[in-house]
Amino acid sequence: MRRLFTLTLSLALAALSLPVAAQSPGPLRIEITEGVIEPLPFALPQFVAENAGAEAMAAQISQLIAADLVGTGLFREIPRDAFISTVTSFSSPVQYSDWKAINAQALVTGAVGTTSDGRVTVKFRLFDVFAEAQLGDGLQFAASQASWRRMAHKVADAVYSRITGEEGYFDSRVVFVSASGPKNARRTRLAIMDYDGANLQFLTDSASLVLAPRISPKGDRVLYTSYETGAPRIHVLDVGTTQRRVLEQESGAMSVGPSFTPDGGRVVYSLAKGGNSDIYELAIATGTVRQLTSGPAIETAPSVSPDGQFIVFESDRSGTQQLYVMPAGGGEATRISFGPGRYGAPVWSPRGDLIAFVKQNKGRFHIGVMRTDGSEERLLTASFLDESPTWSPNGRVIMFTRETQGPTGAPALYSVDISGRNLRRVPTEGPASDPAWSPLLP
Amino acid sequence: MIHIRIALGAAVLAAMGACTSPDRLGGGDTVDLNNQAGLGAEIGPVETGTAEYFSNSVGDRVLFAVDQSTLSPEAQGVLAAQAAWLIDNRDFNAKIEGHADEQGTRVYNFNLGEKRANAVREYLISQGVAPGRLSTISYGKERPIEICSEEACYAKNRRAVTVIAAGLTS
Asked: In this complex, do A345 and B107 lie within 8 Å of one another by their Cβ atoms?
């Protein structure tokens, strides 16, 4: 059905053979639109343990799948004590009437098995209860026990995808700046975690100031600004090995605000020297640098469109920070932000349709989105200080930094969907800022 | 290098520094030159060729208006004194740190800090300091000295600080 699961790294998959009644989506469908929606009720009986040792793993995986779905704000889990049917075998037929009676529109069933060599297999099926039909093929994943969260996320991604028609975003990671210490002596280090805050790993120590990371289109490298060499310089870090190197080192200049081109081969960034900031592009393999803007204004924070054709950036050439779009090779830039206040930190959606930004107006900060021509501006949040938006892999959710006010103020990560609903704090151990959301993992 | 000057002259510079950086005065080990100036009496040797003298008496920082990197007349006065000191104390080089307050996006503030540091550097050059002795760095909004979220703190955080070091080359 969907091509999602042709991506297999350590995860093997196999379609389960079942008499498939309905391959086409039935009435079970969430259209992610701007209006307020009623979350879709689903039932997820604890996945069946296929062997004696799999019970705990089955419970954990079932919980995490449900948590992923509920966390979107699009789904509501029906409590298990309301269930009429019990599911004791993965292959037993579904008693649709029992699920209709408790108004479960979707039913997710599954089974988990463990092996003595530390592998886990997870299989699941999704049913459209009111159409009395299975929705899509059953799928099976296998991986090491250490990857059990990824398997749960992949099941949840498949369920989300089949019901919304959108790609999922649960099997993804977030690079961010982990902070500690008081506001006037803050220490920062790069960290990476799952999208839901699990599996935290630090990528650098806290010896030098780091800011504004961005992750590569394959999720394997991170660009960021670090003061490690004394001056602020753009570094590139390999996520797997945490090896890092200085990428840009023009003498007498400072570089900041890097992001990858969609092919992952080049970096756009801004270079500040002599009181002026302009946007440059650097080819990672060769180190060749090309200047893309010129002029006395602060031009910074570039982000490339997913088709590689355009760059959105901020400039104060009009007197205040505003957003502009120019061809990827440089040239005439078109201003796209015109509302009251100032606009910065633009990020092009991975779907290509929207640009997320930070807006400052009347002493408040907002995360907003607009179409790429600047139309249909929509503010999603409002607070003392919201900034550094980053897109979920499917372009439906934005994660950002929210910093609280005053002497004890500290940053934290939040997410909100593009209609402004479902504002949530992303759990992190301590203060956190500057999220950069990876694509879906392979 | 140690310069011997009369304390009265130093006190005038200290008062100038005090206008823009009150937070730097009042430290326990700071000689209260303001009082000496008020008395107008005590005249004696003062070691002027030190980093302490530079930051406490010459004034090591200038402040900026919101979003601005232009130098106020007051800031220009402080920088003229900094330039005079640097010309007198050629063993020292200076790194100018540009900072912004927390009202603003991180990357923009970084660039704004660079602009402020550069404005200071260019003014010092215009006053006769050799360009090779002056480097700049921006910390954006990452290194506030005051932590309240009010204009009283923001005003002190929007700053460029001239940090001197003997024999610094960069």
From this structure: yes
User: A152 and A180 share a domain?
Assistant: no
Mutate which of B99, B101, B114 to disrupt the A interface (most A C-beta within 10 Å)? B114
Mutation target to probe the A interface, by most A beta carbons within 10 A, among B66, B93, B108 is B108
What does the pLDDT read at residue A385?
98
Domain ranges, residue B140: 4-166
- Spatial distance between the Cα atoms of A259 and A265, rounded to a whole number of angstroms: 11
Per residue in A176-211, pLDDT (tens digit) is 999 999 999 999 999 999 999 999 999 999 999 999
What residues make up the domain containing A42? 3-164
How many domains would you assign to chain A? 2
pLDDT tens-digit readout, A300-310: 999 999 999 99
How far apart, in whole angstroms, are the C-alpha atoms of residue B80 and residue A294? 31
Q: d(Cα A257, Cα A311) in Å, to the nearest integer? A: 13
The domain that holds A381 is classified in CATH as: 2.120.10.30
A323 touches chain B (CB under 8 A): no
Specify the CATH number for the domain of residue A16: 3.40.50.10070
Regarding whether A204 and A155 lie in a shared domain, the answer is no
Identify all chain B residues contacting A234, using CB atoms and an 8 Å cutoff. Answer: none
Both A137 and A184 in a single domain? no
Report, as an integer, the average pLDDT of A359-385.
Answer: 97
Q: Does the CA dihedral A60-A19-A132-A73 come out positive or negative?
A: positive
| Alpha carbons A169 and A439: distance in angstroms, whole number | 8
Number of compact structural domains in chain B: 1
* B44 confidence band (pLDDT: 50, 70, 90): low
Distance in Å, alpha carbon of B49 to nearest chain A alpha carbon = 26
A281: Cα separation from own chain's centroid: 25
Q: Which helix (H) or strand (E) holds B156?
A: helix B151-157
Per the CB < 8 Å rule, is A184 touching B147? yes
Q: What is the mean pLDDT of residues A255-272?
A: 97
Who among B105, B118, B135 is closest to A387 (CB)? B105
